[in-house]
Write a structure and sequence with these properties.
The protein is an alpha+beta fold and about 775 residues long. The protein is built from twelve helices and 37 strands. Helix 2 packs parallel to helix 3 (about 320-335) and helix 9 packs parallel to helix 11.
């Protein structure tokens, strides 16, 4: 069998699909109280609206957060403004501020600000233009409505804009956002002022800012290096080098019949092109977390001006960037040497340029959208670029990407979703409409046959007056995603057939005529039920559960998956730093709520989850997994009890939980506490154990609009802080002699010790000061 016959297309299920499986209804708001009765004199509800105040360590304007491609600029000596800018439609650019706004007390507000913009053009769609908007939030942190300032286009000098805005009665907080919305150009904003105009009293209920008390909390960092062979180094779970067992087959086994198990992470855009120094560190760090699969996503994204598969200064996308290709080559080499496999994601964000020879290229969505099904020039361009990459010989691995078993999957153009079928320019919509008519003629031949097939129970046809196959006037439905009409059902079938033919063609071109094969074993873990635009730190406990890789692994094992994705890494150049989402740093990409490097409390669970996934219990079946993994929605607690890992998570304060081997008495909640074997021995006999205890993390100095922690007024700074988890853990210790318990720092180095109690065959350990503890048998 040739190397090419082992290639396949990996299709990733959407987060929405996974949400139908993962039902974690943790009602955090049930534990929160009403806002405190603090007062503020009526004035500007927006803090630092002149952008004159800055954060000492970053230079970012204070009180503003969610900064992405938003910079503080000198308007004139001693006077500053904010600049939003974007040179490519897919690049995000925005900034926000949250503040208390009680609709029971304030009926209207006046918003005014100074505005200037230059060369503003729409993004992917004609209405993708910059604007300002206020989102109103009720006491349950659900939307209470929104007000949008009309969009801006073209060029205009400094001018004042003012709007009178009605406040919904249910509003308790609000968020003001200035956003480019995918447009290109530059927008300058200054002197933002928001004043109540309709009030019942002279005081506004609600504090301008609430800052939590972090006394007694300790730093939690996501360091880029872990001490080799320490209790935090789980790289021994990986089989090095990647590819040693040959090609991955479609039964999730390698060529030598070794079972394949993948614990993966997605790297976004520029994070796929680290410098060579960072590449080595990043591969080591991923391996120490137990990661053995990396999805290299957004290789063709221009979100970063210099980190893309295509040259940034070129007028076309026909050739690859030699410099960035070399960075990718070296990174894949480092990953492979550490036992980490790759999935290459192609054509996800590609934006064609004027000399690519693509008609109406500026109207196409990233990747080309559904135009790829009907535009031969786009297909040729995609296949040519893919062949350049896949046939390229990596000088470090000395293999091509198509011929290297380290590449276990190729993801191709994931922009083909039914909801985006009509997001095309007029030319491509016309071609798509013509193909639709051609398909209808092949299926139904005449308008009469079509009308009969599209008739409901009342025998009335869905065909509109004047629609006819012969006159080519039967239109596609505007929205295929939710429409259940005969027209939409048939349109989805039409597009499915075109997608299948397109996929077969691509597969045949890339694999040299080998039959197309699809392996549906990848389970991408997302964040269920996260409110839109919520910052990564709005609810610091969220990542303990909604993004818990332990929960994701438990569910994946239940469903028999051979792979699970633990999360995503967005920031670059250094995703392991202590950057705070929204704070100005060296990162040119935002760090959204699902980025695991923005959630230390989730990322630090990765090794535990990897241990569960890579080392399943002997004779493991779906039935005994179901008995080993539980989730109690009412008590809001999950438990895991497998051979080498036992863990509890949730609202645990005052609880005593007995698992198969361990017993936990917890004084802190919410929290996740896990005991895992360091090595291959089961917990009951292992002579080296790791205890991990996590609670919610927050950046130093973070501030919220209220003590409910729902809206940020200050993103804070590094390092992250976490409260200590206080608990007593009972471990069976028969025949293992004297035990020593060490307190570990974030690199896995021993920085102190605890005195355990040995009562009979039980080892009793009281924890209250750190995230990680190492238990070692002295025998």
């Amino acid at each position: 069998m040739s190397a090419c016959t082992s290639r396949f297309l990996v299709r990733f299920p959407s987060v929405a699909q996974l949400n139908n499986v993962i039902v974690l209804s943790m009602a955090l708001t049930a534990l929160l109280h009403t806002r405190p009765g603090l007062t503020q004199e009526v004035s500007n509800l927006i803090q630092n609206g002149s952008f004159s105040l800055t954060m000492r360590d970053t230079g970012a304007p204070s009180h503003w957060y969610n900064l992405c491609q938003a910079n503080r600029e000198a308007k004139e000596p001693g006077n500053f403004c904010m600049l939003l800018s974007s040179s490519a439609p897919e690049r995000q650019s925005h900034f926000s501020q949250s503040f208390p706004l009680d609709g029971r007390m304030i009926s209207t507000v006046a918003l005014q600000f100074q505005l200037r913009y230059e060369n503003v053009l729409p993004g992917d769609w004609i209405d993708d233009l910059p604007d300002a908007r206020i989102n109103f939030i009720d006491e349950n942190y659900e939307s209470a409505g929104a007000f949008r300032i009309p969009a801006w286009r073209g060029t205009q000098g400094w001018s004042a804009t003012q709007h009178l805005i009605a406040i919904p009665d249910s509003c308790r907080e609000a968020r003001l956002t200035f956003d480019m919305n995918g447009a290109t150009g530059a927008v300058f904003v200054d002197d933002v002022f928001l004043q109540p105009t309709g009030m019942g009293v002279e005081k506004v209920e609600g504090a301008s800012s609430w800052q939590p008390d972090h006394s007694g909390w300790f730093p939690v960092t996501s360091l880029d290096t872990i001490e080799n062979a320490s209790a935090l180094d789980f790289s021994s779970l990986l089989d090095t080098p990647a590819g040693k067992h040959g090609w991955l087959k479609d039964d999730a086994r390698f060529a030598d019949d070794t079972p394949a198990r993948f614990f993966g992470v997605t790297l976004h855009g520029p994070a796929c092109f680290p410098s060579k120094e960072r590449a080595a560190r990043r591969a080591r760090r991923l391996a120490s977390l137990g990661i053995n699969l990396v999805r290299l996503y957004g290789l063709d994204s221009f979100a970063h001006p210099t980190r893309c598969l295509f040259p940034s200064a070129s007028r076309d996308t026909r050739s690859l960037s030699p410099e960035n290709l070399d960075l990718l080559d070296y990174f894949v080499h480092q990953l492979k040497s550490r036992g980490i496999y790759c999935v290459l994601s192609l054509n996800s964000h590609r934006r064609f340029r004027e000399e690519d020879g693509i008609a109406d290229f500026q109207l196409l969505p990233p990747g080309g959208g559904f135009a790829v099904l009907f535009d031969e020039a786009i297909v040729r361009a995609q296949i040519t670029s893919a062949k350049q990459l896949l046939s390229h010989r990596n000088p470090y691995t000395r293999q091509t990407y198509l011929g290297d078993p380290v590449v276990v999957g190729i993801e191709w153009n994931q922009s083909l979703t039914d909801t985006g079928a009509q997001n095309l320019g007029e030319r491509h919509r016309s071609v798509m409409q013509a193909e639709w008519i051609k398909w209808l003629r092949e299926e139904y031949r005449t308008t009469g046959c079509l009308a009969a097939a599209w008739s409901g129970r009342n025998r009335e046809s869905e065909l509109r007056k004047g629609e006819s196959i012969e006159r080519a006037t039967v239109s596609l439905p505007p929205d295929l995603g939710v429409d259940t009409s005969h027209r939409a059902i048939e349109a989805r079938r039409f597009l499915r057939e075109r997608r299948a033919a397109y996929a077969d063609r691509v597969q045949n071109h890339l694999a040299g005529g080998a039959p197309a094969r699809s392996v549906l074993f990848v389970d991408e873990h997302g964040s269920p039920n996260v409110p839109e635009d919520v910052s990564g730190f709005s609810i610091p406990e969220r990542a303990l559960f909604y993004q818990s890789p332990i929960v994701a692994v438990g569910l994946s094992l239940l469903s028999g998956k051979a792979a699970v994705f633990a999360g995503s890494i967005h920031n670059d150049p250094d995703p392991w730093g202590d950057h705070v989402p929204g704070a100005v740093s060296s990162d040119l990409l935002p760090c959204p709520y699902d980025a695991s490097n923005a959630w230390p409390q989730a990322l630090l669970q990765w090794p535990i989850a990897a241990s569960m996934f890579h080392r399943p219990s002997p004779g493991q079946s779906t039935r005994n997994i179901a008995q080993s993994f539980t989730f109690d929605e009412h008590a809001r607690i999950f438990t895991v009890a497998v051979d080498r890992v036992e863990a509890v998570g949730g609202y645990l304060q005052g609880k005593e939980i007995r698992l198969r081997t361990c017993r936990f008495q917890i004084d802190t909640g919410p929290a996740v506490i896990a005991v895992s074997s360091v090595g291959n021995e089961p917990l009951g006999v292992s002579r080296r154990l790791l205890i991990t205890a996590l609670s919610g993390c927050e950046p130093s100095g973070v501030a919220y609009a209220s003590h409910r922690r729902l809206s940020l007024t200050n993103t804070g700074r590094s390092p992250f802080l976490s409260p200590p988890v206080e608990a007593t853990i009972y471990l069976p210790w028969h025949g293992r002699g004297t035990a020593r318990v060490y307190v570990l720092d974030m690199r896995g180095r021993r920085r102190g010790s605890l005195e355990p109690e040995l009562v009979g065959d039980s080892l009793i350990i009281h924890i209250d000061r750190a995230t990680h503890y190492e238990v070692v048998s002295a025998r």
